[in-house]
């Protein structure tokens, strides 16, 4: 199952927006000198050594070029070579689980920031606290380390951030004279017109019912004022049966029951949707700009970036829906036999130069405040910067992955409703109990 990329603390990446839950805006630390930012290792010290690095997802030309350049620079300054392995999203949980159980793991890995508590609880990550208090890394806002800091120790460094918006076929909108939707009713109307003109086998607005389904469901539930669960004392209390969550849930399942998305594709995730989008079978879907290189590849160059654009997901209640957002971290794997070299790699990769490029090449938002501020006028990134103002997160609990992905609690609830096996009230009551049991175990 795909590791979800979210972070409840990352809202401070917004241009001046306060952190979710904390109400305080991050204060970046003073800039470090060039000497402090440079990797401390020397070539002779690590010459001849090899470091294994895991990147998550499928490679694409910009990402591969970034890694080639980063690894060449690392070899130049340390003398060590890098063995890079790309882990496809469907294999990530299995690979991490096997490595944590004593299998062959990496020295350094990319990791979704909401996954840090889970893998720390499995003793799979090594603390790297000292690395974050000096050099360029000291400029990264401290509240971006909320999910990365456990019992006073830091276990990962933010590398890039992201949120979601609606990706649409701009060329189709132009052809069919569809205005960019600003309300949910306009989204529905646009989706229906796309289907009328492009065929009923086309998803006007694609339903995501796969491993990352809660990106879409969450936005719809949050827009109604709903939430998954809240912490009361030391116990999680599920909120799936609240009328507000139910309202968003019904908008979500309505994508299929109203015919905007095909009933035969109830388990498709973002990767599946992206592939269909690249093959002219989807008009709109919720994702991030990192999908664009994949679309160009999947379509064999037939669908290009200039045919695509984004708009913020409108809330059914009016205005913009709160966006799911998160980020990618980089961490030292707990069983590495060369922790010092691994930390040198993270120090280089998360320096301002390389972290800014990682975000830019990957369609992510940068973690360095001055670079982020410059995106306010960027036509591609502006919808995502705007989405930060209302961004929300899933329950910050190590067991969320089990509920949200492995056991697919909400996905199963949605399918039972769409397939007519249960009412929304029945499905959500069952899901609420299961969610509480998982989060509180």
From TrEMBL:
<keyword id="KW-0732">Signal</keyword>
<dbReference type="GO" id="GO:0042956">
    <property type="term" value="P:maltodextrin transmembrane transport"/>
</dbReference>
<dbReference type="GO" id="GO:0055052">
    <property type="term" value="C:ATP-binding cassette (ABC) transporter complex, substrate-binding subunit-containing"/>
</dbReference>
<comment type="similarity">
    <text>Belongs to the bacterial solute-binding protein 1 family.</text>
</comment>
<protein>
    <submittedName>
        <fullName>Extracellular solute-binding protein</fullName>
    </submittedName>
</protein>
<dbReference type="GO" id="GO:1901982">
    <property type="term" value="F:maltose binding"/>
</dbReference>
<feature type="signal peptide">
    <location>
        <begin position="1"/>
        <end position="19"/>
    </location>
</feature>
<dbReference type="GO" id="GO:0015768">
    <property type="term" value="P:maltose transport"/>
</dbReference>
<keyword id="KW-0813">Transport</keyword>
<dbReference type="Pfam" id="PF01547">
    <property type="entry name" value="SBP_bac_1"/>
</dbReference>
<dbReference type="InterPro" id="IPR006059">
    <property type="entry name" value="SBP"/>
</dbReference>
């Amino acid at each position: 199952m795909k590791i979800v990329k979210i972070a409840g603390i990352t809202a401070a990446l917004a241009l001046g927006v306060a952190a979710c839950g904390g109400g305080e805006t991050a204060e970046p630390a003073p800039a470090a000198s060039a000497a402090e930012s440079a990797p401390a290792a020397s070539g002779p010290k690590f010459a001849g050594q090899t470091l294994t690095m895991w990147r998550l997802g499928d490679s694409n030309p910009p990402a591969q070029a970034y890694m080639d350049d980063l690894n060449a620079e690392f070899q130049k300054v340390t003398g060590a070579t890098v063995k890079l392995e790309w882990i496809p999203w469907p294999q990530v949980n299995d690979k991490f689980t096997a490595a944590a159980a004593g299998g062959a793991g990496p020295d350094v890995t990319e990791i979704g920031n909401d996954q840090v508590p889970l893998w720390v609880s499995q003793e799979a990550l090594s603390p790297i606290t000292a690395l974050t208090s000096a050099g360029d890394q000291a400029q990264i806002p401290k509240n971006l380390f909320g999910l990365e800091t456990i019992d006073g120790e830091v276990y990962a460094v933010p590398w890039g951030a992201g949120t979601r918006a609606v990706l649409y076929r701009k060329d189709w909108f132009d052809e069919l004279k569809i205005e960019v939707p600003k309300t949910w009713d306009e989204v529905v109307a646009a989706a229906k017109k796309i289907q009328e003109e492009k065929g009923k086998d086309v998803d006007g607005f694609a339903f995501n019912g796969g491993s990352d389904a809660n990106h879409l469901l969450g936005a719809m539930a949050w827009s109604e004022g709903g939430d998954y669960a809240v912490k009361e004392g030391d116990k999680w209390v599920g909120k799936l049966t609240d009328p507000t969550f139910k309202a968003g849930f019904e908008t979500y399942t309505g994508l299929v029951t109203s015919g905007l998305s095909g009933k035969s594709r109830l388990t498709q995730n973002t990767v599946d949707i992206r592939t269909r989008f690249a093959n002219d079978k989807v008009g709109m879907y919720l994702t991030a700009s990192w999908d664009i290189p994949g679309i160009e590849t999947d379509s064999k160059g037939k669908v290009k970036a200039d045919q695509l654009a984004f708009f913020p997901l409108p809330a059914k209640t009016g205005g913009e829906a709160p966006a799911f957002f998160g980020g990618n971290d980089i961490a030292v794997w707990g069983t590495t036999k060369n922790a010092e070299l691994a930390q040198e790699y993270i120090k280089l990769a998360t320096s301002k130069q390389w972290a800014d490029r990682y975000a830019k090449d990957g369609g992510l938002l940068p973690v360095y405040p001055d670079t982020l501020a410059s995106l306010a006028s960027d036509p591609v990134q502006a919808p995502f910067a705007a989405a930060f103002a209302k961004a929300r997160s899933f329950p910050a609990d190590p067991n969320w992955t089990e509920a949200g992905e492995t056991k697919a609690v909400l996905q199963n609830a949605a399918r039972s409703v769409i397939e007519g096996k249960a009412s929304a009230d029945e499905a959500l009551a069952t899901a609420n109990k299961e969610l509480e049991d998982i989060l509180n175990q």
